[in-house]
Amino acid sequence: MTDKTISHAAAEDRHVEALNDIYGTVHIAGCTFDAAEVLQLDPIAFRESLNQYLDSLERDGWTITD
Q1: Is the pTM of this model over 0.85?
Q2: Residue 60 in contact with residue 2, Cβ under 8 Å?
Q3: In angstroms, rounded to a whole number, what is the distance separating the alpha carbons of residues 22 and 29?
Q4: Which residues make beta-bridge pairs with 31?
Q5: Three-state DSSP state, 1
Q6: What are phi and psi of 5, to 5 degrees?
Q7: How far apart are alpha carbons 32 and 12 in whole angstroms?
Q8: How far apart are CA 52 and CA 11, in angstroms?
Q9: Which of 28, 42, 50, 51 has a CA between 20 and 30 Å from the CA of residue 6?
Q10: d(CA 12, CA 46)
Q11: Where are the domains of the chain?
Q12: Does residue 7 contact residue 66 with C-beta atoms inside 8 Å?
């Protein structure tokens, strides 16, 4: 059986990578940003998306550690 344990920090890193892989870059006023970087400008929205990601990991049998 595979150990399905991940730290909160590692899960957040994976979430950021997934956001960037899925949504790519965003162009604002001639500047280019990673999608996760733009979402992090709204801490509540970022936290909600991260919580949804963490919930999906737990549904898939992962244990999130501090």
Answers
A1: yes
A2: no
A3: 22
A4: 28
A5: coil
A6: -120, 135
A7: 22
A8: 12
A9: 42
A10: 10
A11: 5-65
A12: yes
Q: Residue 29 to residues 32, 33, 44, 45: CA-CA distances in angstroms?
A: 8, 11, 23, 22
Can you spell out the DSSP letters for 3-65? --EEEHHHHHHHHHHHHHHHH-EEEETTEEEEHHHHHTTSHHHHHHHHHHHHHHHHHTT-EEE
With tokens 């920090």, the residue in question is 9
The pLDDT tens digits for 6-65 are 999 999 999 999 999 999 999 999 999 999 999 999 999 999 999 999 999 999 999 999
Question: Burial code of 42-60, b = ≥16 C-beta within 10 A, e = fewer?
Answer: eeeebeebbeebbeebeee
Spatial separation of the C-alpha atoms in residues 62 and 10, rounded to whole Å: 12
